[in-house]
Design a protein that fits this description.
353 residues; alpha/beta; Rossmann fold; 12 helices; 8 strands; 50% helix; binds NADP nicotinamide-adenine-dinucleotide phosphate; binds 2-acetamido-2-deoxy-beta-D-glucopyranose; oxidoreductase activity; SDR_fam; oxidoreductase
């Protein structure tokens, strides 16, 4: 009941906000359509999180002397993932924009009394291609093997902005930068994996991918920018790439598996700037997962023995479920893969994939 009233408040208020913005009618209709679909999908998954509460857990092993990389993670879901990885005695490499924040996080975690594991912080702006290359090179210099790569950094909504390299910001942050990073670190991931214990790549995607469509003709959404449409596209691209790359690695008999994860609807700063946070902040406070609860499915994807050899899967609340049908479309997966390789000019500097 409260949820229904909350949703109604949100829908009415956003309708008013959109009408007052004086945009072309067609754009208003399209934006309203996305707004409503997001509210429906969001509410459905939020309820699901509540129903599945008991399933939202995974055993955390100890004394795992392994190495993980996480992008972003100085706050939100990522910082909880880091804390819990440290309790398993994992060495965590953080790639974040502000190195001081990463170091402050380590101090915080040590202050909580967690003495295991270690953190190394390197500078990384995942939306800048040169920064991704520099970060990857630094990791390669210092480490031979990487057991887990967690592609967590992400942004949601916001006005139309292009990255330094000229890509729509959500596409470049959520998808393109991680595509490149995963590609560049594959040799270290392959080295760490064995028949008994695969190395793993975990993409933090979102249930919003079900609303996505890959717009190859205008990947940057220059002709029509609807923030939520662009977010859904970037998250769908993540899921598709996970499935596709997992297939490729399987064919090559490599011991690396890829998962994409919906962490849940989680109360983080990702929602700053959304109408929901402005109009009804009690909804996230009351009903969303906490960042610790959001970290659980990600840890499950990294660590659970249940998933050994079961790459290419999509995880929600620590369970394997099917992603949207469009995410499983092999032709589009392949097209997106070669499209992205061309965008990044990957053949020019490496021949890995
Ligand atoms: N919250 C949810 O309900 C939800 C639902 C589905 C999926 N997700 C996904 O979960 C992931 C984590 O989100 P969150 O909820 O924890 O959000 P958050 O609290 O806003 O954290 C986002 C993290 O990404 C980092 N980041 C953003 N842009 C970056 C860039 N260009 N380079 C490097 N790092 C960058 C941020 O670092 P700075 O501190 O430098 O900004 C921050 O650490 C995202 O991929 C998001 O799409 C979240
Ligand atoms: C943690 O890593 C730093 C270098 O990144 C190293 O100097 C230090 O000895 C490590 N600490 C532990 C407890 O392994
Ligand atoms: C990260 O890169 C974007 C451009 O892609 C830029 O707008 C932003 O300021 C950069 N952030 C930092 C902290 O360097
Ligand atoms: C998802 O995983 C694939 C590896 O399968 C990686 O190349 C891709 O960049 C990842 N997507 C994102 C953006 O996290
Ligand atoms: C989000 O909002 C909170 C509270 O207003 C603020 O403290 C925080 O700095 C904001 N974060 C971002 C990333 O905008
Ligand atoms: C409420 C809920 O989501 N249940 C659990 C999810 O997982 C974390 C970690 O095990 C628990 O602390 C939550 O209570």
């Amino acid at each position: 009941m409260i949820v229904a009233i909350g949703c109604l408040v949100i829908i009415c208020a956003t309708t008013v906000a959109i009408i007052r913005s004086k945009k072309p009618f067609k754009l208003i209709v399209a934006e309203a359509k996305y707004e409503i679909m997001y509210n429906i999908i969001g509410s459905k998954y939020m309820m699901n999180d509540i129903i599945m509460r008991k399933k939202n857990k995974t055993d955390l092993p100890s004394n795992l002397e392994k190495t993980a990389i996480i992008t972003g993670g100085t706050r939100g879901i990522g910082s909880e993932v880091i804390r819990l990885l440290l309790t398993c005695d994992i060495n965590v490499i953080i790639g974040c924009r502000n190195v001081q924040q990463g170091e402050a996080l380590l101090k915080n975690i040590r202050d909580m009394g967690i003495t295991t594991g270690n953190i190394t912080v390197y500078q990384l702006n995942i939306s800048v291609i040169e920064s991704v290359k520099k970060f990857a090179n630094q990791v390669k210099e210092d480490y031979q093997k990487i057991d887990y790569l967690i592609n967590n950094a992400g942004i949601m909504f916001g006005p139309y902005v292009e990255s330094l390299d000229g890509y729509e910001s959500q596409f470049s942050t959520n998808y393109l930068g991680h595509f490149l990073l995963t590609h560049l670190l594959l040799p270290e991931l392959k080295r760490a994996g064995s028949e008994k214990s695969y190395s793993r790549v975990v993409n933090v995607s979102s249930c919003a991918h079900v609303l996505g469509r890959i717009n190859f003709d205008d990947i940057n959404c220059r002709n029509r920018y609807i923030a939520s449409e662009a977010y859904a596209q970037s998250k769908l691209a993540q899921v598709m790439f996970s499935v596709y790359l997992n297939d490729l690695l399987k064919k090559e008999n490599e011991c690396v598996q890829i998962h994409s994860v919906h962490p849940g609807i989680v109360n983080t700063e990702l929602f700053n700037g959304t109408s929901l946070k402005k109009l009804a902040p009690w909804v996230p406070n009351l009903f969303f997962k906490t960042p610790e609860q959001g970290a659980m499915p990600i840890l499950y994807a990294c660590l659970s023995p249940d998933l050994e050899g079961k790459g290419g899967t999509y995880i929600d609340n620590c369970q394997v479920i099917s992603p949207s049908n469009s995410a499983l479309d092999k032709d589009v997966q392949e097209k997106l893969f070669s499209f992205t390789k061309d965008l990044l000019n990957i053949e020019k500097y490496s021949t890995l994939l």
